[in-house]
């Protein structure tokens, strides 16, 4: 696609289901961060803000502040696994800011929390990539038909992004291959 990206129809409910999915993904590895930084509640608050929006709250300052605070928490963590867990929390709060643009980079708003969480589990297991793949399989089961529907409106995940980018592309392909029966 060249030039300006076309717009994709996204409702507030679409943003809520994507944010709920991202929050559930990040919540699974919150203990990785808290084990490293037990007194730092910033990632927990970011996930809490994501859940609040997903359950009907407003998209505003709490989400933005939570995302930025979780990113700062990632930078202050002692281990790579804890940094990835905090980035998952940041991605959960940021999921509410999925833009209605037909750009592959927007897929990161939908799948970033799941990919960062998978990377955290790999690092906890001594950088065992098979653990990350297993984690992605569990993440696929968390996705609702509504999440997959929103994902399929966007182009496939972009190249690049290191290992987290690889995990995003794997998760993207797995979710796009799902079919749901009524």
Number of strands: 0
Average of per-residue pLDDT values: 95
- In terms of DSSP E residues, the strand content is under 5%
Shape: globular
- Rg, rounded, reads 15 Å
String of helices and strands: HHHHHHHHH
Structural class: mainly alpha
Largest sheet: none
Helix content: 55-70%
Tally of helical runs: 9
Multimeric state of these chains? Answer: single chain
Pick out the low-confidence regions: none
- Give the terminus-to-terminus CA distance: 34 Å
Outline:
The chain has 182 residues and is an all-alpha fold. The protein has nine helices and no strands. Helix content is 67%, strand content 0%.
Task: Describe the secondary structure blueprint for this structure.
Elements: H1 12-27, H2 30-36, H3 42-54, H4 61-76, H5 80-94, H6 107-124, H7 129-142, H8 145-152, H9 162-176
Helix pairs in contact: 1-3, 1-5, 1-6, 2-5, 3-4, 3-5, 4-5, 5-6, 6-7, 6-9, 7-9
Would you write up a description of this structure?
The chain is mostly helical and 182 residues long. It contains 9 helices and no strands. Helix 1 packs antiparallel against helix 3, helix 1 (12-27) packs parallel to helix 6 (107-124) and helix 5 (80-94) packs antiparallel against helix 6 (107-124). The longest helix is centred in the middle third of the chain and has 18 residues, at 107-124. The model has no long low-confidence stretch (mean pLDDT 95).
């Amino acid at each position: 696609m060249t030039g300006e990206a076309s717009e994709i129809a996204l409702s507030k409910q679409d943003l809520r289901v994507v944010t709920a999915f991202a929050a559930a993904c990040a919540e699974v590895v919150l203990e990785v961060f808290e084990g490293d930084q037990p007194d730092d509640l910033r990632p927990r608050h970011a996930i809490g803000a994501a859940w609040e929006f997903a359950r009907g709250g407003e998209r505003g300052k709490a989400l933005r502040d939570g995302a930025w605070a979780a990113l700062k928490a990632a930078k202050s963590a002692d281990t790579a696994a804890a940094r990835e867990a905090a980035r998952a929390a940041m991605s959960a709060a940021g999921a509410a800011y999925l833009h209605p643009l037909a750009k592959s980079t927007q897929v990161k708003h939908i799948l970033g929390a799941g990919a960062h969480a998978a990377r955290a589990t790999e690092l906890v297991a001594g950088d065992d990539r098979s653990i990350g793949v297993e984690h992605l399989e569990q993440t696929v089961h968390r996705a609702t038909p509504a999440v997959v529907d929103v994902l399929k409106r966007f182009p496939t995940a972009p190249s690049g992004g290191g290992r987290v980018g690889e995990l995003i592309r794997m998760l993207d392909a797995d979710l796009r291959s799902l079919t749901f029966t009524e």
